[in-house]
Amino acid sequence: MKNSDLLEIAAQFGSPVYVYDSEKISTQYHRLSSAFKKVKQVKFNYAVKALSNVSILKIMKSLGAGLDTVSVQEVRLGLHAGFAPENIIYTPNGVSLEEIERVSKMGVQINIDNLSILEQFGTKYPNVPVCIRINPHVMAGGNSNISVGHIDSKFGISVHQIPHVLRIVENTEMNINGVHMHTGSDILDIEVFLYASEILFDTAKHFKNLEFIDFGSGFKVPYKPNDIETNIEELGEKLTRRFNSFCKEYGKDLTLGFEPGKFLVSEAGNFLTKVNVVKQTTSTVFAGVDSGFNHLIRPMLYNSHHEIININNPEGKERFYSVVGYICETDTFATNRRISEIKEGDILAFKNAGAYCFSMASNYNSRYRPAEVLWHEGSAHLIRKRENFEDLLHNQVEIEINSEAVPAN
């Protein structure tokens, strides 16, 4: 997308606003599928939690993707978007047996990550195919909050508890049709990923009726010019060779599964904000924008880097700015960042805003959540309206308060 396109969108739909480029999503999907083209059966299940707008889900369906879901609500969104139940995998964490039962009745693939629920579900529904999420005890991920495969993680069944899993499967006679792992996000060292994959292959040998092996995802995308990223092509070459070899050992062709989220949508997103004030202090120049961590929490939560471009003055002289929001506490997007000279009223574009931006947005400070716009086939389409005051009140139930009955302090 051109800066002029983004400026027109900001003018038409107001700011702040999230903008997604469907062509970039398609490019990323085809890059991933090309890396694994030598595997007979591959399934990419898009991680809905990254960006759950129904129009985005429909794009994924058109590309041939399935869905990776973590809640009954995400499952319902997928069904609403037209996905067949068999193209949805449900991988919750710490949810009740009742929720898993509800989802099971919808016909989607169940993925269970703890022994207690595995035994309860297998006892009640031995004929329902179940995938098991394994914790390989391999640390991977760019931040402790998104590294989920280590020994202290709440996710998955420890690889050391496989004997217990096998006893449960034997006692319940349940049907295990898949094994799964997810080590974490922002994976750089593919050798670590391949090492964890060997643990999953060893686990798979214990189950004779598998249909697929799911390797999760967590591929790192670049966040700034010349940034490092997961080498998808090298991973595809090495894992394909090992997976095909394993299928021969196993005696049949299994499906190779992945659950890309950020990889598909992160770079497709721009978050546009308007500069409300440029404020000089004794040591810092602040650019205060019409948004905050209620709309883009990743820098505050994960210390993540989002490139910030002044699209009104992209070629201007660079100065150092701390870009901050309007939330009534520390609310910093970037500190001492080199950005083309900023004036009040300029539009700043935050890059990599497709994943975990709107989906983690809130109404903190009673601010409205922004609109979402899809840039598709050369034009802008509104895919979510900006919230208004009525939305803030929508589910509130007001009661009558008799002020005379309230005791004085």
UniProtKB/TrEMBL annotation:
GO molecular function per UniProt: diaminopimelate decarboxylase activity; pyridoxal phosphate binding
Record-level GO BP terms: lysine biosynthetic process via diaminopimelate
Binding site for substrate: R298, Y302, E329, Y356
Orn/DAP/Arg decarboxylase 2 N-terminal domain segment(s): 24-266
Stored SUPFAM superfamilies: Alanine racemase C-terminal domain-like, PLP-binding barrel
Enzyme Commission number, as recorded: 4.1.1.20
Organism: Aquimarina intermedia
InterPro entries per UniProt: Ala_racemase/Decarboxylase_C (IPR009006), DAP_deCOOHase_LysA (IPR002986), De-COase2_C (IPR022643), De-COase2_N (IPR022644), De-COase2_pyr-phos_BS (IPR022653), Orn/DAP/Arg_de-COase (IPR000183), PLP-binding_barrel (IPR029066)
Similarity comment text for this entry: Belongs to the Orn/Lys/Arg decarboxylase class-II family. LysA subfamily.
UniProt cofactor(s): pyridoxal 5'-phosphate
Lineage: Bacteria, Pseudomonadati, Bacteroidota, Flavobacteriia, Flavobacteriales
Role description: Specifically catalyzes the decarboxylation of meso-diaminopimelate (meso-DAP) to L-lysine.
Protein name: Diaminopimelate decarboxylase
Active site residues per record: C328 (proton donor)
The Orn/DAP/Arg decarboxylase 2 C-terminal domain, residue ranges: 18-354
Involved pathway(s): Amino-acid biosynthesis; L-lysine biosynthesis via DAP pathway; L-lysine from DL-2,6-diaminopimelate: step 1/1
Assembly with partners or alone: Homodimer.
Residues reported to bind pyridoxal 5'-phosphate: G218, Y356
Source species, domain of life: Bacteria
Keyword field: Amino-acid biosynthesis, Decarboxylase, Lyase, Lysine biosynthesis, Pyridoxal phosphate
A UniProt-annotated Pfam family: Orn_Arg_deC_N
